[in-house]
């Protein structure tokens, strides 16, 4: 039985780690990238999950033999994910009826001073969505190290890939002792608009709420989950001096608008093998689920294997509404 907030934090953290092992979440992230599948885990535990407009609330958990979880549709996907993880904590630890509002976003479990079941659910959510191994998996894939986490642009890209907010990612990196408290505060002071502008350069956008993904060959074969209006900067190595170029026609056919297409040509002193960086900025404004696939080949050779390919799957449907997409996929497969 919990007697203090330290016991509650330990209990919630252990419960999250146990669920990761049961559902092999680490294997899934290592294989496909992305974040921990919080909604899939909720459904696999037998809970009824639904998304509805909740005025003034983020979520609720109704206990029982078949517990129910309700999450608001009035917030972005990353907030839905954190709310879902918090409510999942209530389910896993068999808490009483819980109705949660904005307060779950502002508090930290280590502060204590509130209901022990809420502290337990907060600790569960933090560890479930942002365990240390999820940062390590993405760092290995991207070639990032501990020093990289001092760069706000890198931390922002990490946050996008794990499906968490920038602020929550900074705090989790500090919680796992990947960065110190001073670095955390320095990162939190960086304006998100400044990070996005540095990625987009001279590309103008109507608003700065949209996210900006930087995608490279290291993202090959992964799945990214974002919002319908997100922007993407593809940075791919190109052997244009040997006649090989990337063909982006398939992206336009898939509904992506190309906002900028440039090449970053190194100086003769630093050029290696005639390789340049092809930089493509694109976006699509409609929700979509599909695969991004482009090839690098000599334009005059229409057949044969390309020099290289870049592929990844994307889910740009945005926030969940009504029946969870995980349930719809199960029904489609049945």
TrEMBL record:
<feature type="domain" description="Proteinase inhibitor I42 chagasin">
    <location>
        <begin position="231"/>
        <end position="313"/>
    </location>
</feature>
<feature type="domain" description="IrrE N-terminal-like">
    <location>
        <begin position="62"/>
        <end position="173"/>
    </location>
</feature>
<dbReference type="InterPro" id="IPR018990">
    <property type="entry name" value="Prot_inh_I42_chagasin"/>
</dbReference>
<dbReference type="InterPro" id="IPR036331">
    <property type="entry name" value="Chagasin-like_sf"/>
</dbReference>
<keyword id="KW-0646">Protease inhibitor</keyword>
<dbReference type="Pfam" id="PF09394">
    <property type="entry name" value="Inhibitor_I42"/>
</dbReference>
<dbReference type="InterPro" id="IPR010359">
    <property type="entry name" value="IrrE_HExxH"/>
</dbReference>
<dbReference type="GO" id="GO:0004869">
    <property type="term" value="F:cysteine-type endopeptidase inhibitor activity"/>
</dbReference>
<dbReference type="InterPro" id="IPR052345">
    <property type="entry name" value="Rad_response_metalloprotease"/>
</dbReference>
<protein>
    <submittedName>
        <fullName>ImmA/IrrE family metallo-endopeptidase</fullName>
    </submittedName>
</protein>
<dbReference type="Pfam" id="PF06114">
    <property type="entry name" value="Peptidase_M78"/>
</dbReference>
<keyword id="KW-0789">Thiol protease inhibitor</keyword>
